[in-house]
Write a structure and sequence with these properties.
Elements (H helix, E strand, L loop, with lengths): L15 H14 L1 H19 L4 E4 L4 E4 L13 H15 L3 E6 L4 H21 L1 H15 L1 E10 L5 E5 L1 E3 L5 E2 L1 H6 L13 E3 L9 E5 L1 E8 L4 E3 L11 E9 H8 L1 H6 L10 H9 L18 E9 L9 E6 L2 E6 L14 E5 L13 H25 L3 E3 L29 E3 L6 H18 L16 H40 L4 E4 L7 E4 L8 E6 L8 H14 L7 H11 L6 H18 L13 H8 L6 H4 L3 H21 L30 H10 L13
Antiparallel strand pairs: 1-2, 3-21, 4-10, 4-16, 5-9, 6-7, 6-8, 11-12, 12-13, 13-14, 14-15, 17-18, 19-20
Helix pairs in contact: 2-9, 3-5, 3-11, 4-12, 10-11, 12-13, 15-16, 16-18
Length: 712
């Protein structure tokens, strides 16, 4: 009986040859399917930048321009890019709400959940989250998959942190905290456990090291640079993950030192996907670049591969290795862990459309690409028809004596009149057949349907739809076309938030500041000690909320008619203007709110603020102060500050009541949400109510202006 071969792979963290052999085996086993994925992704990139008259050359193994006559028109009306941009805009603007809950009823878990949302805001600022969303959304729709790799690393060009050294009181040996930790909290000089005190030099200055401050960072990758097992349902099931990319020699020297940079072999650092990445970087609408170009660059580049192996009996903490060229420069267990010490993979995978039974997602760009090519072909034929058949022509009989005719105005022609022969005359050309126009319009509709984008999703008012209720219905239809994508997007954000909070808890040694007010007033500090406990993260996808501008306007219009939104309330009116994207209309309200928020900040810091002035906007101040008069922040105030905050809010309330004019003779109270008081509203009459109002809204035409909503 033949002996079963042992699974290929490294046997220890020091087995560098085994790591290299495993990487080579993984690359070879997935070569064919990876080549097909890279070919498709590159094709989508070329279509997006406008280089669409290309074909695949099997001999060269690359794309090239189609071999057409120079007289053949090659028009490009890039509906492909328009659809991609619409999807990117709607997806990156989709902001699902994250909820943070304590993992258990432990006090540390409860405290961690209370600050998790603020800590995540700090993390988003450090990783430049808003810019990442645009890049991720582009890769999501062009490649079908996007990966976010989250790190905690030293910021070499940023602020520094001072690490205080400790002095052993027994032998006066000065040691860094890292040295003491490596030596099991004993002094390296006398092997005694202290006591230790902060070390100072002879002039009383603290002794220690100044090191770069740690910072959260994120990388965005696609299937061009990340490899994993294809026959699994999720990245968590893949036994390995590999990221293959190029780095400059300067980066290698900064990261690993001069010795590693000098030992790196540039000649053997080319990867099989290098030409794809070069084509994606350097190709333009006027030219296709498929050469390597590595040796022509001022700074040579080398190949960097990073390998993650899942925890196993051989590697209980997982294996993370970094390989430059063919040399392993780092090999260790996974660097990040959850609250219970279990290693976590610091990679988030988001798919466009999930295909059951495989890891890689499907992008709708694959369905639209043939339609874009078909549209270009029909437009080219139409242009040829216009060139050959749509121009006017002159009919000149032979022997008429005319040799040259121009289009000069008022031109007089002399010709030899011949019996039975018509005079020279102009024949009008034929316009292109209506079929071409109709077919192009049909293809455009098919492209929109395949992308799942409609007029309302692009911010256009659909033709023939007069009511906002109809627009809201179309907005819901657009959302249904994107529901799977938005669900995956929200779940990806949830997974990333969970990973980021775990990394922060383990490695964020430096404090971070976050402004909690409307400006740079109240600042709260956060560190990894605030996340000592465990936090569960959940996402509220909010799929029933409108996320297109015209859909939001339709909801606002309906809310005002139903009385659930009151334009007379400054706070509600400002929120509506924010929803519509025009908050600058209420600059006075914004300024008053900022002043009230600044007073909140002072109160939270235990400082007194002046009593309300008569000319202030008291409803705005009172509504803003209510945010700190309840909840944990109010309970954390000293009793005297609590009393002063209540007195300050009461001052606004009293001024607001004094400013309300009394009702005159014959006046009645303002109408309520149902249109009146005392049972006179339509909702109290037989046959009336909310159902009739909705029906009326469905039949009511939109305003003539393009604003879409009533004034608020």
């Amino acid at each position: 009986m033949a002996q079963k071969n042992k699974t290929l792979g490294p046997t220890s963290y020091d087995d560098h040859d085994g790591i290299i052999a495993y990487l080579d085996a993984v690359e070879e086993s997935d070569r064919q399917s990876r080549d097909m994925r890279e070919r498709e992704i590159l094709y989508h990139l070329l279509l997006y930048i406008g280089l669409q008259w290309v074909t695949w050359d099997r001999v060269l193994g690359t794309y090239r321009r189609q071999a057409l006559k120079t007289s053949t028109p090659q028009p490009v009306t890039n509906k492909f890019a328009v659809g991609i941009n619409a999807l990117v805009a709607s997806t990156s603007a989709f902001n699902p709400q994250l909820g943070f809950h304590p993992a258990t009823d432990d006090a540390d878990d409860i405290a961690a959940a209370a600050v998790a949302d603020h800590v995540l805001e700090v993390i988003k600022l450090e990783v430049n989250h808003r810019a990442l969303l645009q890049i991720e959304a582009k890769w999501l729709f062009l490649a079908g998959d996007v990966f976010r790799v989250t790190h905690y690393e030293a910021e070499t060009s940023g602020p520094k942190s001072f690490i205080q050294h400790e002095m052993c009181q027994t032998c006066q040996t000065v040691s860094s905290p890292a040295m003491l930790m490596d030596n099991n909290s004993t002094c390296p000089g006398c092997n005694e456990q202290g006591p230790f005190l902060p070390a100072h030099d002879e002039v009383g200055q603290p002794m220690g090291d100044t090191v770069p401050r740690g910072i959260m960072s994120c990388e965005v990758h696609s299937a061009l640079t990340l490899r994993a097992a294809s026959d699994v349902n999720s990245l968590d099931e893949s036994p390995y993950v590999v990221i293959d990319q190029q780095k400059t020699m300067d980066w290698v020297e900064r990261t690993y030192g001069e010795k590693v940079a000098e030992a790196s072999d540039i000649e053997t650092s080319e990867s099989s996907t290098r030409w794809v990445q070069q084509a994606a970087v350097y190709s333009t609408a006027s030219g296709l670049m498929t050469g390597s170009g590595t040796h022509d660059q001022p700074t040579p580049q080398v190949r960097l591969r990073r390998l993650w192996l899942r925890p196993s009996p051989t590697f209980e903490g997982g294996l993370y290795a970094e390989i430059i060229g063919n040399k392993v420069v780092h090999s260790a267990p996974w660097p990040y862990h959850d609250k219970d010490g279990r290693p976590i993979l610091n990679i988030t995978h988001t798919r466009c459309d999930i295909v059951p039974g495989r890891l890689w997602g499907k992008t709708r760009a694959s369905d639209v690409a043939p339609k874009q090519v078909q549209r270009n072909t029909i437009e080219s034929v139409m242009m040829l028809f216009e060139r050959r058949s749509s121009n006017d022509i002159m009919m000149v009989p032979t022997g008429s004596g005319i040799t040259k005719i121009t289009g000069q105005p008022g031109l007089m022609l002399e010709y030899n009149a011949m019996a039975g022969v018509p005079a020279p005359h102009r024949e009008a050309g034929h316009p292109p057949p209506p079929y071409f126009i109709q077919r192009i319009a049909q293809i455009d509709e098919e492209i929109d349907a395949l992308f799942g984008t409609y007029e309302i999703m692009r911010g256009d008012a659909p033709k023939g739809v007069a009511s906002y209720a109809g627009m809201q219905l179309l907005d819901e239809r657009a959302r249904s076309g994107q529901s799977a994508i938005l669900t995956n997007w929200g779940l990806g954000l949830e997974h990333w938030a969970r990973i980021s909070l775990n990394i922060w808890r383990e490695h964020a040694d430096d404090e971070r500041n976050l402004s909690l007010g409307e400006g740079a007033w109240a600042v709260q500090k956060f560190s990894k000690a605030d996340l000592k406990g465990g936090v569960d993260v959940t996402v509220d996808l909010g799929m029933n909320r409108p996320y297109t501008q015209i859909g939001r306007r339709a909801v606002v219009e309906q809310g005002v008619r139903l009385g659930v939104i009151s334009p007379q309330e400054p706070a509600e009116r400002f929120r509506v203007l924010q929803l519509l994207g025009i908050p600058e209309i209420m600059e006075d309200y914004k300024r008053e709110r900022m002043d009230a928020s600044r007073e909140n900040d002072y109160l939270l810091q235990g400082q007194a603020v002046q009593m309300p002035m008569p000319w202030e906007n008291h409803p705005v101040h009172l509504e803003t102060h209510k945010a700190i008069l309840t909840g944990e922040r109010y309970m954390a105030m000293p009793p005297e500050v609590q009393q002063y905050a209540i007195q300050h809010a009461q001052g606004h309330f009293q001024n607001m009541q004094m400013n309300q004019a009394p009702l005159g003779p014959g006046q009645i109270a303002p109408a309520g949400p149902n249109g009146g008081a005392g049972g006179t509203a339509k909702g109290d009459q037989p046959g009336g109510g909310e159902g009739d109002m909705v029906q009326q809204d469905a039949q009511m035409a939109s305003p003539d202006t393009s604003t879409g909503a009533t004034s608020v």
